[in-house]
Write a structure and sequence with these properties.
Elements lengths: L2 H16 L21 H8 L6 H9 L3 H12 L7 H15 L12
Helix pairs in contact: 1-2, 1-5, 2-3, 4-5
């Protein structure tokens, strides 16, 4: 995962956490605007500029099936995340940190 995908995870988590009405576990189509609704993978796809479905987002951009992605989220925070927008946001952050650490910029030493 590149920094682009990592940032998409973080943006999706922030939107879901701050806007309960934007989170819908059952909505797998990527939203066309931030006023829409979507599941975590759909919001990741939105922030990656994709017009697709959750399964395509996870397969094409995350390299795993939708089922594997959902199972991993459940392992991180428990199955209740599916019905709780705050837990869903937390799961996205934990997932990004665990599986796709943000690339670290290396400073050049002046020595």
């Amino acid at each position: 995962m590149t920094n682009l995908e990592y940032r998409a995870f973080r943006k999706a988590a922030r939107l879901i956490e701050r806007n309960k009405q934007r989170y819908n576990f059952w909505e797998g189509k990527t939203p066309t605007e931030e006023r829409g609704q979507g599941c975590p993978a759909a919001w990741i796809g939105y922030y990656l500029g994709m017009d697709s479905y959750a399964g395509e987002v996870t397969k094409e951009r995350l390299g795993v099936s939708l089922l594997v992605f959902l199972e991993r989220l459940g392992v991180l925070v428990g199955e209740a995340w599916q019905e709780n927008h705050r837990l869903a946001a937390k799961a996205l952050r934990l997932y990004a940190d665990k599986y796709y650490r943000k690339e670290v910029k290396v400073r050049k030493s002046t020595g």
